[in-house]
Structure formats: C-alpha cells, structure tokens
Design goal:
The chain has 157 residues and is an alpha/beta fold. The chain has a five-stranded mixed β-sheet with strand order 2-1-3-4-5, sandwiched between helices.
Length: 157
C-alpha cells in the first residue's frame, strides 16, 4: 500500500474507538473511547454496567422505562461512561495519562466526564458525534483549560 493510501492517525484511532463501542452493554447508546499518548494507545473504555455486575436490558433500564431524554438524569443509569472507564483502566494498570494525551471518543463527553478529563489533564479531544454541546459552561471550561477539540465529521456519531 502506498503511503498516500494510509489513513491518518486520527482516523485510525477513531476507527478503534468505534470498534471499542461494540463492546458496550448500554441499551440506549453505545460509546467507545481510546486514550492515546505519544501515538500509542494507553487505554480503552466503553459504556456499560460496572465490571462483574449485571448488564442492563431494555426491561431494566430505568432511563428507558421513565423515557428520560438523552443527556438527563444520569443518576438513574447504572452504567459507567466510556471516558471514565478509559481513566480507570489506565489507573488500574499504573499508566500515567497526564500530558500530551488525546481522547478519541465516538460521542462528545457529558459534563461530568468532561470535568474528569480536565482534571486528568487530557489535552485534546477528538469526537465523532455531538452530545449536548449547547452547554455554555462546557464550552467555557474547554476554553479556559485550553483543550483542543475537533469533530471528525467523516465518522457517524
């Protein structure tokens, strides 16, 4: 394969995030995330019930039962978000994530995950799908932290 035929590193890591999302056990939205430092994957995560716990089903998902709109009432969900699972996996294996680390995620982080990523000193977020980006506080935090964000449009959200 000629060099010109190679996909970019951003596309490469985003495709991996989409593959990771296929492991999700969430019945509403499958999200995958990959943390990359110095062009090497340091951890992956997908959303779903905590390790070793029963997975949600359409019949047991309280957000489905109560018809809770996307992005609201996260406390009703027993799932752990993909971004949090990335951080947990890195910590479990003693891998530092601070520094020039990029998060590739299939869906832009929620406010709670965004604050965790800011505290973890993630410097760049590449995402495929939007998720409540209309939040002015979210944008203010991103601007203040100097986080580089970019939506990769060629991937489905």
């Amino acid at each position: 394969m000629a060099t010109d035929d190679r996909i970019s590193k951003d596309d490469y890591f985003m495709e991996i995030a989409h593959i990771v999302a296929k492991r999700s056990t969430c019945v509403r939205r499958k999200v995958g995330a990959v943390l990359v430092k110095d062009n090497h994957i340091i951890s992956t995560g997908y959303n779903g019930a905590p390790s070793g716990m029963k997975h949600c089903t359409p019949e047991t998902c309280l957000r489905n039962i109560y018809k809770v709109p996307s992005g609201e009432r996260h406390e009703l969900c027993r799932g752990v978000h993909a971004e949090v699972n990335c951080i947990i996996q890195a910590a479990t294996h003693g891998t530092a994530i601070q520094g020039k680390t990029t998060l590739y995620t299939t869906t832009f982080p929620c406010m709670s995950c965004l604050k965790l990523l800011l505290n973890a000193k993630i410097r760049r977020i590449m995402y495929a799908g939007d998720y409540k980006m209309d939040n002015a506080m979210k944008q203010e935090l991103l601007d203040e932290a100097g986080i580089e964000i970019e939506r990769i449009q060629r991937f489905p959200g």
